[in-house]
Structures are given as structure tokens and as C-alpha cells.
Amino acid sequence: MSVRVRFAPSPTGRLHLGNARTAVVNWLFTRHAGGAFMLRIDDTDRERSRDEFTAAIKTDLAWLGIDWDEEAQQSVRLDQYADALDTLKAAGRAYACYETAEELDYKRKRQLARGKPPIYDRAALALSGDERKMFEAEGRKPHWRFKLDSGTVTWTDVVRGDVHYEADHLSDPVLVREDGVPLYTLTSVVDDIAFKMTHIIRGEDHVTNTVPQIQLFLALGGAVPAFAHLPLMVDADGKGLSKRLGSLSLEALRDDGLEPMAINSLLGRMGSSDAIEAAHDLKTLAAHFDLPAMGRASPRFDPIELDHLNARLLHGLSFAEAEPRLAALGLANTDEPFWLAVRGNLKRLRDAAAWWTVCRAPVAPTIEDAAFTAAAAGLLPPEPWGPETWRAWTKEVGAATGRKGRELFHPLRLALTGRGDGPELAALLPLIGRDRAAARLAGQTA
Questions:
Q1: Residue 200 class from Cβ within 10 Å (0-12 exposed, 13-18 middle, 19+ buried)?
Q2: How far is it, in rounded angstroms, from Cα 68 to Cα 47?
Q3: Which helix (H) or strand (E) holds 175?
Q4: What is the dihedral of CA 142, 193, 44, 179, to 10 degrees?
Q5: Per residue in 357-383, pLDDT tens?
Q6: With bands split at pLDDT 50, 70 and 90, how would you rate the model's confidence at 238?
Q7: Phi, psi for residue 347 in degrees, rounded to 5
Q8: Rounded to whole angstroms, how far apart are CA atoms 163 and 207?
Q9: 22: nearest Cα among 213, 268, 243, 224
Q10: What is d(CA 27, CA 49) in angstroms, rounded to the nearest whole number?
Q11: 373: alpha, beta or left, given left = phi > 0 and alpha = psi -120 to 50?
């Protein structure tokens, strides 16, 4: 059977690292298996769903390099959900309930006060026809619940292993609200059957949804797919990421200058027994992907680790790959020697702009000892300069002034670049050129 998976975001906001991880893992799993990946937009909640968020989700996925073979949108499939509800009604598995939200909340509080679990009491099943007519005469519209069969629901989870849940410990889930809007429990199963999904890979916050959904698959005559529930990400301190989701949206990370493959490399490996390494492309990442290697422990998101992955990717970027992106940053006249000189010091690609300025534009030098830098300027060799010029020049300056080590090199770096650290000056000096070097050593902005 060919593998078929789906990523099913609700267009109620921007994608963040948590749901991006679900997308990446699903994509890597199916591409590794040579299967099909569907993007399903779960937009039945028309009050909160926005077309601009649908567009933003697609933009974010495309930025990561995640493509899809098929696309579905739940808001245009309402007839299919209504048909499924009719099937469940006819089988006696869906029943109408008339309690208001306030009445249900009161019931839950009474149960908790008595030390009982807040499980729906199925009072609606005992309603007579006259009672239903009375509620409807009051203007009440029913919501529809799915009647769970008693007993143990079991499945072998690809991540969690063997899972057992007692259906009697759960409330019959609501399938359709009183306003007629079908809910995730129903719509997801109907679509997974219709589109022949073989694997459902999602967060472990959906584990309890799996119990009624397995029964729904069977009640609707569908094949039960394999399930894999990923543990939810936490921060470096072991706390949930919910309070930081704004800063961890893909939009914010993109604006921060992060490389998409740094994010993919992290999300595709975190929580697994495989080492997290900077993968140059998604094809490489997919080739070595192993879903069963995902562990049960909550993976910790450390922004420092993401920064390190980002830097390693930049350090390995060829000039051919970097050139159009440097041009997009407005950096003209870049060449391979410049890129090779600076890439090893970049944390973000935009950091190259500062070194372009050092090599191509006026810089105000920092002079610690004017007499020393003036003496060094007088010893500058004639051009052309190459990678060996720095060593030969500083050797001569050291012999003439008696300086060595930091006392020799640091004042020269400050004068030539205006900064106390950065790329090797053996590579930078030929890019700066003799005229700029001489002027800066003399304390002039050049």
C-alpha cells in the first residue's frame, strides 16, 4: 500500500514551530517512503478561519521547501460531513442533545464536586419525543454526539507503542455543534477515509481524540490508519512553548534571518535517536528519516542550537548559492574571495553586509596607538596582494616595532576594520586594498 499522509492546519493564525514540526515530519516520512503528501485546510470554523491565514500557511510551507501532491479544503466538503452524520444516525451511533453550554458546565461542576469524572451522562438518550419537541419549541437546536461503544480501544502507535484506552472513561464526543458546524472529530475521519490516508502523524495532544476516531472509522466503514503521536515540544527549561508562539512563528523566524534548512534540520531530528546535523537540503534529510526513532520524551527547543545549525549551513554555502541572495540584500560587486573570507563568521546571511562595508565602503577606524599604526602604514607592501600578504607584512611590522601577539595584531584589526573581531585578516586585507588600508591606518575614514 502506498503511503499517504496529510498535514491539516486550521487557518486561524500563522504557523509556528510546533505545527511546522508536524508538517516537516509528515513530509519527510512520506517522501522517504515515496508516498503522497496532502495539505488539508481545516476551515470549517468560519468565524475564526481567514483566507489570509490560508495563504500565509502556504507561503510558510513553501519557504521551508515543503510541497504537496494534493490539496483539500474542508469548508467545501460540508455535504460529505452531513452524509456521514446521517449514516451514524441511521446506525444509532449519533444522537441529538439539547443541553446548553451553561447546563453542561453545571453538570461538569456537580460531577467534580462529587469526586466523579466530568463525563457526559447521556441524558439526551432518555429524552422522549415530546421532550425533544418542547426543547425545539423553545428555540433550542440540537448538537450531535457520537455514542461510544464500551470496552478497550487499542492501537500500536508508531511512536508510543501499544496504547490502551477505556472508552467508558471518555465523554461521547460532539460531532456537530448546535449551529450545524461539524467538528474535527468527525470531519477529520470522513476526510481520512475519503482520501485514503494510511498514516496519521500528529501531536500527542490528539491521543484522546484517537479513541473515538478509531470507533468512527469502523462505524463509517473505513480502514483504520496507523497512528503516530509526537510528544509536544518544550523550551530549554522544560516548559511548554505556548507563551512564546508569536516569537516562534515561521514568519518571525524568517524575518529574523534564519535559514529554512536550519529549521527543517532541527524539526526533522529533534526528539529522535538520530543526531541533529545541518542538512543542506530536504532530500538528504528525507533519505535518512526514521519515524520509529522518535522518542517518547518531550523534545527541548533551544534557540542556541537553532542558531548553531543556521551558522553551519551558511559556513557551507557555496558562492554560487550565496551570490543571488547577497545581491538581494543590495550587496554589489561581491565575488567568491569575499564570500569565502566572510562566510565562516556569519550567524545570519545579512551579517555579510557589515563585512561588505569593511571591504567596499568607507569605515571609521579605531586607533589605539597612532604612532604604531602610522609606522605599520609605512611598511605596507605594494600591490598586488594575496593571502600571504598579511603574514609577511605583520612579520615586518613586528620586527620593526618589537610587538607580537595581541599587542601586534589587535590594533591593526581595529584600524583596518573598525571592529575587534571577525574573519581572518589574511583573507580580508587583499579585499580592503592598499589605499583603504593606508588611509585607515592613518586614522582616516576610508
A1: buried
A2: 27
A3: strand 174-176
A4: -10
A5: 999 999 999 999 999 999 999 999 999
A6: confident
A7: -100, -30
A8: 9
A9: 268
A10: 24
A11: alpha
Q: Residue 244 CB: number of other CB atoms within 10 A?
A: 15
pLDDT attached to residue 242:
66
SS3 148: coil
Angstrom distance (rounded) from CA 259 to CA 314: 8
Give CA 411 to chain center in angstroms. Answer: 44
- 8 A C-beta contact, residue 378 and residue 399: no
Q: What are phi and psi of 232, to 5 degrees?
A: -75, 145
For residue 145, the surrounding DSSP H or E stretch is: strand 143-146
* 313-334 pLDDT tens trace: 999 999 999 999 999 999 988 9
CB atoms within 10 A of CB 182: 24
Amino acid at 400: A
Burial tier of 408 (Cβ tally within 10 Å: 0-12, 13-18, 19+): middle
Alpha carbons 400 and 135: distance in angstroms, whole number: 101
Closest CA to 263 of 247, 243, 248, 273: 248
Query: Residue 285 has what pLDDT?
Result: 97
pLDDT bracket for residue 235 (50, 70, 90): confident
Output the nine-digit C-alpha cell for 81: 460531513
Tell me the CA distances in angstroms from 379 to 374, 393, 438, 439, one per residue in order: 9, 7, 10, 13
Instruction: For residue 178, give Cα distances in angstroms to 83, 103, 140, 145, 440.
Output: 17, 14, 8, 11, 76
Grid-cell match 545541518, residue found = 278
Omega cis (within 30) before 303: no
